[in-house]
Design brief:
Blueprint: H1 6-24, H2 29-50, H3 57-85, H4 94-113, E1 120-123, E2 126-132, H5 134-160, H6 164-193, H7 204-223, H8 228-239, E3 243-248, E4 253-256, H9 274-278, H10 286-296, E5 302-308, E6 314-324, E7 330-339, H11 341-383, H12 393-410, E8 414-421, H13 424-431, H14 433-449, E9 456-461, E10 464-470, H15 474-489, E11 492-495, E12 498-501, E13 504-511, H16 521-541, E14 547-549
């Protein structure tokens, strides 16, 4: 076998390793990166072998370019793969990846363009022998820069890790990088620099690629470089308290963890029979529907809670989820068992407490409503007179202080009526206090019927009353006062066998909007009531049962 077959043999061996990694490993994200890198490495020996099979310069140039494209991508491929190898893949953003690939990509473009044969030129019209220009040496220099950066990154990570197994993984990969770098230097030295004085040795770089790849594959199988995640997933699966059974589309058990043993006794390879499992469980009629859906609707997600007979008061929740491929074909199902006994107890206890809390809330609402009614009554009692239901003097004065300020600000006319019942003492002395109280109450009721909603009727004291009338001028107040006096005069109060005739005397003060000027509302009100009281006194002196206007 001639030396020209060396590169082909090395390519075949690399291809076998490529297939082996795919066949015997789960394809993780790191595997994908490695396989892409491995594929690029395979192109170098393939191109070096294929160029020797043809005498056409254009075809030779195609295969040579393919080899150097693969060579140009070795450096950035190693560097990017080191990020995955050292657990720093999260740092690889798109912009950063482009930044790392850019120098090699520029060199590859220069090699393919080959301006004025600055990268390489054929000897005697054939690319079997080649002369290399400055662009070739730039490509070589950049490749060694990539390898040097990757080596430094590996050395740094090797110093920081504490796991012996991980240190061995990195050390093995590091040996592979040294091997590849060494054979690359040897290939450049022997087959390029010393080509005029030494015979060409084919396959040097391809051999370095194969040996470095072997180091890496050894790391895969001996130290489980890519199995950390799988091991972690397996460990989590085995130690979960939730029971898990994975079955295929026919119900055959593919995986079962220890957490399922308290609920079901099943081993890998057996057929899981849901009907047999549900038979001893207490779930009333709902169990039949659950079983029917399990048997006839395998694409549905299902969940149900059961009570275990062998353990009184123990409850288990069963969940079933289908496993589908990209074409929605059923591959199997995952059955989980979760002990919800404590959760069920907590729910029952919480419901009991919620019911007690609800009853307590109803009691509090009842008490609150009663307090509201009592407060309303107290507020009403605080501002009203108990005999007549009119406002009391305290409320009247508070309201008037506020009202007169508004009247002054907005120039609103108002009137004050001050009246009392004529000869009330004689009525009390002759007929008694009960009749006197009825006279006061009846008089207040009659007066109230003649007032507007905005008017304020207050018991000023004893048989004396006050009326505040906003938005009322002098003429309006005179007419209303006469109407009230006449209405009261038509009133007769029962006093046993007799009827008591009631009249009132009234003093009226009317304030127009132009006259409202004061500094102290309290002092002003004292003057107002003094004027109204003087008018009332005058009405009494003039014979009672009459209205006298103040001022």
């Amino acid at each position: 076998m001639g030396l020209q077959w060396t590169d082909f043999i090395l390519f075949v061996m690399l291809f076998i390793l490529f297939i082996g990694v795919i066949a015997f490993n789960r394809i993780t994200q790191t595997h994908k990166v490695y396989l892409a890198f491995h594929f690029v490495m395979m192109l170098w020996p393939l191109g070096q072998f294929a160029v020797k099979l043809t005498d056409y310069p254009d075809v030779q140039l195609f295969f040579i370019n393919m080899s150097f494209v693969a060579m140009g991508m070795l450096g950035p491929g190693w560097l990017l793969f080191v990020f995955f190898l050292t657990g720093r893949a999260a740092q690889l953003k798109v912009s950063r990846i482009l930044y790392y690939i850019l120098p090699a990509a520029i060199c590859v473009v220069g090699a393919l363009w080959n301006p004025n044969y600055q990268f390489m030129s054929p000897v005697s019209g054939s690319y079997l022998d080649r002369m290399y220009g400055p662009l070739f040496w730039l490509l070589v220099l950049i490749q060694f820069a990539y390898f040097f950066t990757a080596l430094m990154s590996m050395f740094h990570t090797l110093k920081t890790v504490s796991s012996i197994n991980q240190r061995r993984q990195l050390a093995t990969a590091l040996i592979g990088m040294f091997v590849l770098t060494g054979f690359g230097l040897l290939d450049v030295l022997v087959n390029v620099l010393l080509a005029q004085w030494m015979p060409v040795i084919p396959g040097l770089l391809a051999l370095g690629i194969l040996l470095s790849d072997l180091c890496f594959v050894i790391a895969i199988y001996r130290f489980g470089m890519f199995d950390i995640l799988s091991m972690a997933q397996r460990d989590i699966f085995e130690h979960m308290t939730t029971g898990i059974i994975v079955v295929d589309e026919n119900g055959k058990v593919l995986e079962v963890n220890k957490g399922a043993s308290p609920f079901v006794q099943s081993v890998k390879g057996e057929t899981f029979e849901m009907e047999k499992f549900l038979a001893p469980l207490q779930a009333q009629g709902e169990a039949y529907e659950f079983l029917y859906r399990y048997l006839h609707h395998p694409y549905e997600k299902m969940q149900m809670e059961f009570s275990l007979q062998e353990s009184a008061g123990r409850h288990v929740s069963i969940q079933i989820s289908p496993v589908l491929d990209d074409r929605r074909t059923l591959l199997g199902r995952i059955i989980t068992f979760h002990d919800v006994t404590e959760l069920r107890k907590l729910v029952v206890e919480m419901n009991r407490k919620n019911e007690a809390l609800h009853e307590r809330n109803l009691e509090l609402i009842t008490i609150q409503e009663e307090l509201f009614r009592v407060n309303q009554k107290l507020e009403q009692m605080a501002v009203t007179d108990g005999l007549t239901g009119c406002f009391n003097r305290r409320y009247l004065m508070q309201q008037l202080e506020h009202e007169v300020l508004l009247n002054m600000r907005y120039q609103i006319p108002f009137a004050i009526f001050l009246f009392d019942i004529d000869h009330f003492k004689q009525i009390n002395d002759k007929y008694g206090h009960l009749v006197g109280d009825e006279v006061i109450r009846s008089t207040a009721d009659i007066v109230r019927t003649k007032l507007r909603r905005t008017d304020i009727l207050a018991r000023y004291g004893g048989e004396e009353f006050t009326i505040y009338l906003p938005h009322t001028n002098r003429e309006q107040s005179e007419l209303l006062a006469e109407r009230i006096m006449l209405a009261v005069g038509d009133n007769w109060v029962d006093a046993g066998t007799e009827k008591v005739h009631v009249t009132i005397s009234m003093g009226v003060l009317s304030e127009s909007s132009e006259d409202l000027r004061f500094d102290d509302p309290k002092e002003y009100l004292r003057e107002v009531f003094s004027s109204a009281d003087s008018a009332l006194y005058k009405a009494k002196n003039e014979g009672r049962n009459r209205v006298v206007m103040a001022r």
